[in-house]
Specification:
Number of domains: 1
Number of helices: 6
CATH architecture: 3-Layer(aba) Sandwich
Order of helices and strands: EEHEHEHEHEHEEHE
CATH topology: Rossmann fold
Number of strands: 9
Oligomer: single chain
Radius of gyration: 16 Å
């Protein structure tokens, strides 16, 4: 099987944005020769996930959510939500991911879309908002895919909300999403790769953290 290629492609739900993505019906580990390496994150950045697409669509359709504000996109992956925030008029956008390759991909994708973001590698789940740096709007797409990651992300997002940040999450119903902490604000039918999701579309919601959840 030939090695998968990375190509600049339009985003299915957000065709006004293009990202450097794997081209074709490829699975997550096809880029690593079919192997999982515990010492490096999987190449999530090479795919555009449902939660990020929904967030990006929502921000471009509702630019008032981020226009003139400082934005932080955590677990940025390809950078899609961060790029959409910049396109929607955010004053400053930072994008963080535990994988240095993702931070580099987000920077490359931002340049391809004519916007500027500050992307860096950081383990957000083990940090406090004060350590990461506060923002007026926090974005997180598809971060509740495992129990350990979900618990860390929920704790971080609740702490960020306590600082006064607006917290928006894109999630297609992952098994570890803590729905009780959030209110649904929008819903999209998102085209996805069947090689990744075993379906061609996922109903994906944009959620905002409840004020009451920060005190639980």
């Amino acid at each position: 099987m030939p090695k998968p290629t990375i190509t600049l492609l339009p985003v299915p739900l957000v065709p006004e944005l293009s990202l450097h993505l794997v081209d074709g019906p490829v699975g997550l580990f096809d880029l690593t020769g079919g192997e999982f390496h515990s010492d490096e994150p999987p190449p999530f950045w090479a795919f555009v996930w449902a939660g990020g697409q929904a967030l990006a669509r929502h921000l471009l359709d509702h630019p008032d959510l981020v226009a003139g504000r400082t934005v932080l996109d955590i677990a940025t992956g390809s950078g899609i939500a961060a790029i959409a925030a910049a396109k929607a008029g955010a004053k400053r956008v930072r994008a963080l991911d535990v994988d240095p390759a993702a931070a580099a991909a987000a920077q490359r994708n931002a340049a391809a879309n004519g916007v500027v973001i500050a992307a860096a590698s950081a383990e957000v789940g083990d940090a406090t908002p004060a350590e990461i740096g506060e923002a007026e709007v926090i974005l997180a797409g598809d971060v509740f895919y495992s129990r350990s990651v979900a618990d860390k992300m929920a704790a971080y997002l609740r702490a960020a909300a306590r600082t006064g940040a607006r917290v928006l999450v894109g999630d297609p119903g992952r098994g570890y999403f803590p729905e009780r902490l959030f209110d649904r604000v929008a819903e999209y039918v998102v085209p996805v790769s069947a090689a990744l999701e075993e379906t061609e579309t996922l109903v994906t919601a944009v959620w905002e953290i409840r004020a009451t959840s920060t005190h639980e």
